[in-house]
Amino acid sequence: MNFNQFKSIYPSAFLTDDTKNDPNYLTFPYDNQWIHFDKKQLTSSEIKLLYLVFNKTVSNENTGNPQSKWSDFLLDDQLHLPVETGVYRIIQFDINKKDTRFDKKLWLSSFKSFFKDVQEAFFINDHYGLLIHRYSDYSITQDETIGILQTLDDDFSTKTSGYIGQHWPISIDFKRFFKEEQAIFFNQLKGNKQIFSLPDVALSYYASDALSKSSIIQHLKKDLISHPETKELITAIWLNQGNISLAAKYLFIHRNTLQYRLDRFYEESGFSLKNRNDLLLCYLLTI
Q: What are the PucR C-terminal helix-turn-helix domain coordinates in residue numbering (predicted)?
């Protein structure tokens, strides 16, 4: 069902880019956003039906374990912890390019095989899912996780976006942290990085709301976005931490060409992307 169909049945339903975390609403991931239903306007049967509609893939694809304590805890209103102790990390994945021959079970099995201490891995819908694993001295690093997803993309002819969560000790707060990480992932899916973690996107995610309220920032941003190649230039310098040679490789241009563009940008804007403060401000203008 599309949103308009839900809206025709539940007029108070609405979409947001974040989870809202309001106990008065029933909330589900929906098309890279969140859909919310007022619990006061739902019968117990309707609540059960909505859970079935939005979480049916979990029960069907949950690696042979439909009574999953992890999925109940993370996706439903269950408050019981899935385990008693330990530190865990959730890796979110979104496969946004696949052909009709794509085998979800084989992909998931392959993905799990790279990790030790996997607690659970499952698809929530036909393209989005989670892998939960326990922290140990042998836990895979972020760079290794990026390499794994890139390898799977090559093997399965897919294009996967991923969010590598932080390690959190299991507690009632774990679910709240996951909901925020989920909101970050959905918000940043169309950003510059295909696979990322909190340090990669924290600045753009948490600063975007404040920046949108600044008349100064909006005025500067209006001038900047009128030249699309300028955003590409700033992004390249930012992602490569001000290293001109690496930024030139990122843009597939000669170092001297990039240097010329930097000089021209300085002449036109008064901002030097070689200066860390200027670069930070200009990057914020691209968010």
A: 239-284
